[in-house]
């Protein structure tokens, strides 16, 4: 955890290999749902489906999906508390979904903060892909706000990426193999259209 805190303070992002053991990754994979939804862009009434921007499918995480999911969310809670203790970000909630990319799927470059609704402050991406090879492609490419590429990250199983949501545009390159991950966001509460905006 100390390496995560130090990296966020200096670089704004951290790649945490072997965040979970192979056994824990397998247990999470066993919780992957069968009923997928086409991923969309935006939040609440602004949600749209634009396949030219992203082509993956998702399913939101819920503790009732199984003990491995509850364990994963518990680890995210530990990160939330530790980050708040060091950086006073006021992270209040965590929302996350499974993401499935089939061969050829991608997600064009984007920021995780919605325009006019910047409650997402810290992004996590956890990979559940066994025996991932260079030929499988599907890397996550991270940029700075000046559009300079700063990291290309293969989606190897057990790897966790954590980064400041407002600082790093990123994209998922087209994949040559089925690809699974958990994308999540630590959020602060805010007000939008005169309503309290809380993750659900």
Automatic annotation (TrEMBL):
It comes from the Bacteria. One of its GO terms (molecular function) is peptidyl-proline dioxygenase activity. PROSITE patterns: FE2OG_OXY (PS51471). Transmembrane segments: none annotated. InterPro entries: HIF_prolyl_hydroxylases, Oxoglu/Fe-dep_dioxygenase_dom, Pro_4_hyd_alph, Pro_4_hyd_alph_FE2OG_OXY. Residues 87-188 form the Fe2OG dioxygenase domain. The keyword Transmembrane does not apply. SMART domains: P4Hc. This is SM-20 protein. Its cofactor is L-ascorbate. Signal peptide: none annotated. The keyword Iron applies. The lineage of its organism: Bacteria, Pseudomonadati, Pseudomonadota, Gammaproteobacteria, Vibrionales. Keywords: Dioxygenase, Iron, Metal-binding, Oxidoreductase, Vitamin C. GO terms for biological process: cellular response to hypoxia.
